[in-house]
Specification:
By secondary structure, the chain is α+β, with helices and mostly antiparallel strands. 57% of the residues lie in helices and 13% in strands. It contains 8 helices and 5 strands. α1 crosses α2 (28-48) and α2 crosses α7.
Length: 180
């Protein structure tokens, strides 16, 4: 038969679906707070017309001199490619640099919401991995609960769009669809 390799596509549409479910099933405020720093930053960038270099300079003015950030980190923030900053200091520096009043006034709530959403997303990825492994080894499908409040289950997602199974034998391989 061969070895089985599972691959998980970590996609933005999956994360967006999670945010949508949380908004629709009872915690719109959590989703709003979590997204707020990105939404308000995007608006501020559009209003000011800052390019990446201007963004770097503006944020650097609000960071401690010992906080080194790579150009890629700034680019990720500037392009809104990330859902969170790694440190509170970084998020605060961005909020201060672009006078993101809502974020500054609700800083701890925004920070906590961002990390709550990220933790839910990590739990979802873990549930997918666990499900895939169980499905491949035993053929059983179990609808895993990712969150109780709001209730989010694995069946809320198109699992087959995110997990890929390959059977490897020797130097050849063939992709085999996952069956549930």
């Amino acid at each position: 038969t061969g070895d089985v390799v599972l691959h998980f596509d970590d996609t933005e549409d999956m994360r967006e679906k999670l945010y949508e479910l949380i908004r629709n099933r009872g915690d719109a405020q959590l989703a709003f707070y979590a997204a707020s720093w990105r939404v308000f930053l995007e608006q501020a960038l559009e209003e000011r017309g800052d390019d990446l270099d201007q963004f770097v300079n503006r944020v650097n003015e609000h960071l401690d001199s010992d906080e080194y950030k790579t150009r890629q980190t700034y680019r990720s923030w500037y392009n809104l490619d990330v859902r969170r900053t790694r440190s509170k200091k970084s998020m605060k520096a961005i909020a201060d640099a672009y006078d993101l009043e809502f974020v500054k006034e609700n800083f701890n709530a925004v920070w906590n919401a961002v990390h709550t959403m990220e933790n839910l997303y990590q739990k979802l990825k873990e549930a997918l991995s666990e499900h895939a492994l169980r499905s491949v080894t035993s053929g059983d499908y179990e609808d895993v609960t990712v969150s109780e409040h709001p209730r989010i289950q694995l069946s809320d997602f198109h699992v087959e769009r995110h997990l890929h199974k390959c059977v490897v034998s020797g130097e050849e391989y063939r992709q085999v669809p996952i069956h549930y």
